[in-house]
Structure formats: C-alpha cells, structure tokens
C-alpha cells in the first residue's frame, strides 16, 4: 500500500481545519480520509485526483454537520455546571465543589440521619444491651408486723441520798439577850461560861455534838461540787510589780542593750529634718517569761520618734525576768530612749 | 445514484446494528476499515459515508457499548473501536431484532410478488 507523504497529510489536515471541523474529531477523520486517499493512489490515481475526490465526498457541509452532531452528542453529557463554567477557570475550585455537590449532600444527609438515629436510639440500644434486672431485684417482700407501741415511761427518779449527817460540833445555847422587865426574864437564860465554850460553839440550842471538830463548816449548799474546776481554771491575774528585789535586765547587760539600740534605732527623717532631739520615755512590761508586752510611750517628743522607740522596744529579744523572792514576776519597766543628732 | 440514496435511507436505520454486528465478529476495527468491510461484503451495494458512520460510532461509545483506543499508525492517530460486555449483548439483541424485521419485511413483500407470478 502506498503511503501518503507528510506534506500531503498536512494538506489534508489544513483542509479539514479550514472547513471548521472540531479539533476533537480531526485526527479520526484525517486518518479516514488519508486511508481513502491511499486507496485511490493504490488504484492508480494521482494525488491531485484523489484529493479532489476526497474533497467531493468530504465537502465542508458534511464536515460541518459532523461537527454539529458531535457537539450535540457532547452537549447531552453536559450538565448545567458544564454550561455555567464553559470557558471559565475550572481549576479554581468552585467547579469541583459544584460537581461534587450532589454526592456531598447525599453523604452528609446519610451521615446526619445515621447520627441522629443513633442518638435517638441510644437509650433503646442501651436497654437492649444491658440486661434487665430480675424480678426479684425489683420487688421486696415486706412482712408486716404489729408494732407494739408502749407509752413512754419516765424513769423513776433516782433515789436521792439523804444528806449525810454533817459532823456537828457541840454547841452551847448562846443567844442574844433581850432587855426585858424583871418579871419577864427567864431564869435559865444565862450566857455560857468560858468553860462551856471551850469545847462547844455558841448556838441556838445546847446540843451534844457528833465530833470534837471545832472548825466552822460552811453549809454544803454554798459550795456546788461541779463548778469548782471552772473557778480553778481562771488563772489568777499575775500581779505586775513596779519594784522588785531583782530587777529585770536586758540579756547581756546595758552595753548589749545600747548596742542593740544603736543598731536598730533609726532616726526618723521627719525628726531629723525638724532638728528634734530628746528622750522618749517608753514604758513596758517584762513578763515572767521575759517577754516584752504592753509597750507604750509615757512621754514622747513626737515627729515619729515615739513610734520609732516603741518599734525598737518591741523588736527586743526576751529579757531576763525580774524576780521577787526567787520567783520570776511581771515587772513594769521604764526605759528612756535618747534621740540625739550628731 | 437514485438507488444509492434509497439504500442510504435504509442504511441510516440499520447502521447501528451493522456496526455492532461487524465489531462482534472482528473484535477491533477503525472507521475506515468498517466502511471498507461493509463495501466488500455487500459488493458495493451499501457504501457507508464517514459523515454517517462517525456520529453513530461516537454515540455508541457514549452509550458505553464501545470502547476506543488510539494507536499511532504511520504518524497518524488511528482510533480503534471494540465492543464492551453490554455492547456484545446489545449487538446480539439488535441483530436478532433486525433479522426478525427483515423476515417480516420479506413476508410483507413476498406474497405480492408470488401473487403476481
């Protein structure tokens, strides 16, 4: 079979393009026509003759109809999206989104409905999965018993022990004497003698006592047994002394205290500005444990010096407590703090 | 020329069946080969024009009855058509249909000719 030369094929191709054949159809038709041309050449025709024959069969009208039909065929496949996006940037994303819209919707609806049903049916599923309790678990057999209601009985009052007979001291009748006219005076009413009172106390009547006790016993009602403790807990207020045998002292002596004061005492800026000097008398109590409390200024010079003095006193470590007859006691102590500008 | 056009009229209706039937026999053909085959078998009685053939091929392809593969032959792209599984089924059905139709037509035409004889 004779082959068409490249330039002849080119010629055919150009003819087809000029006729307005759609490019999608071009290779196929070109091949068809080329085959036909080769057939004609085989039959002995010259190329020009073959070409004109081909043009006769494949006239522009036929080619046009072919193109149109092909387009119609393609159009049938086209959706609205293809028409909308004809000649536009399809790779931008909107086209893909639109194309996949139906399947996306379908999937989402399916998922949504499934999820919703799952949520709705969850209690039912749970009930199915978790076995129901046995009947015995729910019902309880309760035996009814008659409740014997007894009237509340008050416990019998505890037998009150008769108060023990207090040891009674012997008494001798010794009453006050009334001043009466002579005829009304009873003879017996004579005051007890000293001898009588040696072994007895004066009383309303002369009674032989049960003991030799001569103490005066307070009446039992006056000292309630249960409250004795509370009275005891109330520690007696420690007496604060002013002067004691052994005065309290700063641990380490006066030199150490001077050193402490020098270290800690700051001249208040206010006072130094106002050029204030003088002594601040501070009063405080040195406790029996040596602690310093109740710090107050007796006589100050103001300008922040009083507060400063008090602050430093409060800052002091425990003192050696003062002692009175050997036992440590609280002592009020007065200390002058000197503020002096250099 | 006159006979040719009338034959074309009938061809148009049966073209699909012709193509499917041919492909069922030959497995793989290209457009020009089909026209040549038809021309050869019918002795030139039926000549398919490419203007009629190709739209039919494309349509069948779109319907999923044919698949194509492009092979480069002599520096040109040649498109080969072959049947798919539904295409095979369609070929069988259409051929049967046409045969019954032809039989019916024959019956329709025969009595007259017999009567005249």
TrEMBL record, chain B:
<dbReference type="InterPro" id="IPR036390">
    <property type="entry name" value="WH_DNA-bd_sf"/>
</dbReference>
<dbReference type="InterPro" id="IPR036388">
    <property type="entry name" value="WH-like_DNA-bd_sf"/>
</dbReference>
<dbReference type="InterPro" id="IPR005149">
    <property type="entry name" value="Tscrpt_reg_PadR_N"/>
</dbReference>
<protein>
    <submittedName>
        <fullName>Transcriptional regulator, PadR family</fullName>
    </submittedName>
</protein>
<dbReference type="InterPro" id="IPR052509">
    <property type="entry name" value="Metal_resp_DNA-bind_regulator"/>
</dbReference>
<dbReference type="Pfam" id="PF03551">
    <property type="entry name" value="PadR"/>
</dbReference>
<feature type="domain" description="Transcription regulator PadR N-terminal">
    <location>
        <begin position="19"/>
        <end position="91"/>
    </location>
</feature>
